[in-house]
Amino acid sequence: MKSHQQQSKKDLWKWRNLKIAWSSKGCFDNSQIAIVLIHGFGACKEHWRHNQPEIGKLAICYAIDLVGFGNSSQPKARLPGDKPQTGDFIYGFDSWADQVADFCKEIVKKPVILIGNSIGGVIALRASQILKGNCSAVVLINCAQRTMDDKRLIEQPKLMRWLRPFLKSLVRQRWLSGNLFRKAANPTVIKKVLMQAYPSGANIDQDLIQLLHKPSKRKGAQEAFRGFINLFNDHLAPQLMADLETPVDMIWGEKDPWEPVEEAKHWLDSFECIRSLEVIPGKGHCPHDEAPEDVNRVLTRLIQQAT
After folding, report:
1. Considering Cα of 240, then 279, then 96, then 29, what sign does the dihedral take?
2. For 147-156, what is each residue's pLDDT tens digit?
3. For the segment 25-45, what is each residue's pLDDT rounded down to a tens digit?
4. What are the DSSP E strand ranges found in the chain?
5. What values do phi and psi take at 113, rounded to 5?
6. How many CA atoms lie within 13 A of 214 on its CB side?
7. Pairing relation of β-strands 18-27 and 6-15?
8. Domains of the chain: which residue ranges?
9. Is the pTM of this model over 0.70?
10. Measured between alpha carbons, how far is 146 from 158 in angstroms, rounded to an integer?
11. Which CATH class is domain 6-306?
């Protein structure tokens, strides 16, 4: 599979009248399979900065900006119950999975391994269902567990369950979502969140802060935020994996503050589609960027096994 003709490319793809930014690196001529990298909430294709060049040595490797993030279009959010408007978008796992699946069909045009971090993992699982036999494997990196979904409400404290209808009504309001977004979308807050997500502090640099902050300054950035914080009833990873035929491997930062590794271990024991779990000691929610050497070694092994 290895090729000496290593190439890099950045481009825009028109999808449903939206502009989708993507990049590729690697073996264009000899790849029998392709890898597609799917970022998490608030991130972008450049979040794979330490992974895409290495994975591209094995096969052509694509990274894509989800609608609402990076350099992709940021259309107005349509929430459940809203009247459709020209150019609006339902920010949710079906829409994003359709985007990834269509990208694989129209741009990649070969069997794929989908690799997703955080919500990108849920999107990868849903896209694999759509792609069926054209998805060879899925790799979840600290997949979002979505503890605040309505379907997991019974797990919440009684007070939270009682307040839930009021909170759901409140966060629909643009004045609130816009205010929350403006407070969060600044370098100081971004760095504080990164210090939680990357407990070792490794690779928290100005390049990372800038690549996360820059898309938030675009005109429609708060629309993706509004759409996402109103996702109260959408796909959960366990439901997607319950009858999934595509093999799944998991990589998990041991000290993820939001997606506990204990749940990943439970998934490993519960779902036939899951082949493996690799825990990265001392690392957090984004081990692919916090400890890229460790994660790249695991990804290299998994990709070689799949090909």
Report:
1. negative
2. 888 888 788 7
3. 987 666 789 999 999 999 999
4. 6-15, 18-27, 34-38, 61-64, 112-117, 135-141, 248-253, 274-280
5. -110, 125
6. 13
7. antiparallel
8. 6-306
9. yes
10. 18
11. alpha beta
